[in-house]
Fold:
Amino acid sequence: MIQTIVFSKNRAAQLDQLLQSIARRAPDAFDPINVLWTANSADYMRGYRLCIERHPNAAFNYEHSFAAQLTETLHKSQRDYVMFLCDDDLVTKPFVPDPTPWFLLSTKQILTVSLRLGLNTTDCYPLNRPQQNPNFTFAVRDARVWNWKSADGDWGYPGSLDGHVFRKGDLLSMLSNTDYTGPNRLEELLMHRCERQEMNMMACYSESVITGCPLNLVNTTHSRNRNAGQDPLVANTTYLEGKRPMLYPIERNAVTAAHVELPLVFV
Structure:
């Protein structure tokens, strides 16, 4: 199992949908789940209280010192492998982890195993263009391996917080003696530290497992990040009315990128 740390702000409804997707599509893969969350209004706080009631198996921690709390969670982890997620991610297909990718992490050249990449992710959402699949150095069972330092688009971006599995020791080393104030700054730092590593290989499954759903923007530091422009307050209001995001089937041909604007449907 993989220690999973989820970052969330003002998006309790989308967090609910993510946790539903883990429970139904990958119940034996991601455990324990720690949610580091924050909210900047009373209504958003009410949304999280509702989400906490609905997901008693996840550990929710209100953010008061982002970097210190994250470091503490990593140090306390009993798992060898750690994965970050954001609240607008989804597990988009049933997933039972094959031991092969985790075995690959015992090879020092492998920096991370990506669950958001696969042969299906032929588009790069942030750059709004097609991306070239890398030249895979080898494939073993359902795993593919490539040199990320010479790869295109998402294939060359190991620092993502959307479903990349790292060794816990590597993360602690890369994040030591640093300070960062939120997920976006953490991702910038992590990518910078990845670029300084000698580990130039990544691995993934043949089909992506996790997909980001960039429906809205809640950060105040990266306003140019591409998204669908929806108002997170609308989703929160609907959630507080007692409606819940539906976990609907996702067609395979709908996921052609690591980020796809999959709609939020309430029932």
Observations:
- The longest helix spans residues 12-25.
- DSSP finds seven helices and 13 strands in the chain.
